[in-house]
């Protein structure tokens, strides 16, 4: 793939987004265009991966302006892998949104397509200011997607989650912008090639780049600035949560990898900060999940924990650590989206409930249950899934770099992850289905106190919740009679194949990556080489 | 120096406003914060040692740096659009300002008065209902 085609990865989605706005709603063509664009982006990413097996870099200056003025786009192996996986995730989540009926909402397809443009741009750009711009391009449709999922009541909505998300992201974007400004003041450029290694030699540049890294850490939800994620993500709809989990935090992580490798040149003096913070992230995230009572908030806290793992790769700056971190990043995007989509399929059909209110789904929905189980084991790092390869190589790298404490934390946190996944499994999928009269799918919803009670998960708490919901079901008129089948339809399958398939596909991908881990690991090693020695990337940025 | 002091004062005001509860004040805080960031970028262009690009053939080393100005222009557009969006959020969710403090984001409560039902239209509603009950109880 030649460099001149790179701008198409941004231009095509933007043009299609404009077209989709003009198209009338609920048209098949709109959905086809949506899937075609995201699928095309995936295919382009895969083509880039194939063309860069030798570690080459393709680059292009947009509009062929002279270097320094033009927006440089460059793609090495890391970029290509990220493009492929983000494209795949967006496609799968779009399929889920179509199956759940969410894609029929006004402006859903154009928003997702513009989101793709922003993600691709942020991954491709070789210039810090344009990174800021593309992150904003990515975020603006996300804000709208979040509010779209907000429950309505008359003319007002509950948009607390969306407000939190917008506020946090605007704050971090402003911090990032200030950091870029400071870096420009010190080095006179924001081009990756010109600022390469600046933070190693100049303390002022290091402070400026650290401000950028701080902003990206907030976006990636690193402890101690992780609090927003577990509150904002569950406010979205299942499809949107899955999409955000795969795209937003991961683009920030990609930028952290890139900036630390290029601007800091992998400076060894600051790696201990990373090891400390990212180990804390692993622990705090997994412990936070223990106290949560709904599946999506548990999964959101696990995301925080896993982000610690991913970023540990950059803190173990070396061929082993970086390759393990990149492998973990790609594995995590797939597995997390699979989990969100599997539990999301349950949520769409059975309603949003505290853990324990919906039980015994494995009997009626075996496909979703198997997909969830596979992805959960993969998240915890059990062979033969990709999580095992990821965690094993990461722990191996930590031991090789002498960070034994981090290795111990990584292993210990895995156990807690498994515990938490089993909590969801046993409370939601396993066990006897609830008695027909207590069918929580028909509208009742346990309130605050019961939510706390559900933390106990497997003991008496679920029955307490079920009793409570039964009372409420009888006490209230059902606000949405048409959206869920009646209680007598309980044994029947409610989740159609189209709704279950997205989660299953991603679970199969993680199994494939686990069995054929060597393939992705060798690609991750090529990507790690590109970060260890960024010279080819930088030359491509300047001389394309 | 004046620029640096200005940035400091503006950021102080922005932080004060951001810590307020009402959404509109938070939005105003972000307006100030955006201005502060823009001033930082302007200062990064060497505003203190460069003059206006006037005359027939201005010397690029002595005249104002155009790149930070382009940055600021882009940043203003982005900040402006998000400000409008946040104001829309302030109107759309104006009930959120009135809610009792506490965990409003993820409390799923029973929703008796749910509006027109969408897919999950009542999924996150009504953490205020228990609060009201508490008020009634004593």
State the main characteristics:
heterodimer; A: 544 residues; mainly alpha; two-stranded antiparallel ribbon; two-stranded antiparallel sheet; 23 helices; B: 138 residues; disordered C terminus
Description:
The complex is a heterodimer of chains A (544) and B (138). Chain A has helices spanning 8-22, 28-51, 77-99, 108-124, 128-148, 160-187, 192-195, 198-201, 203-220, 227-232, 238-262, 271-290, 295-315, 319-350, 361-364, 366-380, 386-400, 404-429, 448-453, 461-475, 497-515, 517-532, 535-543, and strands at residues 58-61, 72-75, 152-153, 156-157. Chain A is an all-alpha fold. In chain A, a hairpin with a 2-residue loop joins strand 3 (152-153) and strand 4 (156-157). The longest helix of chain A is centred in the middle third of the chain and has 32 residues, at 319-350. Chain A is globular and about 65 Å long. The two termini of chain A are 14 Å apart. With 138 residues, chain B is mainly α. Chain B has helices spanning 2-18, 23-44, 66-92, 95-98, 128-136. The model of chain B is unreliable at 100-138 (pLDDT under 50). Chain B has 5 helices and no strands. The longest helix of chain B has 27 residues, at 66-92. Helix content of chain B is 57%, strand content 0%. Chains A and B meet through helix 5, strand 3, strand 4 and helix 6 of A and helix 2 and helix 3 of B.
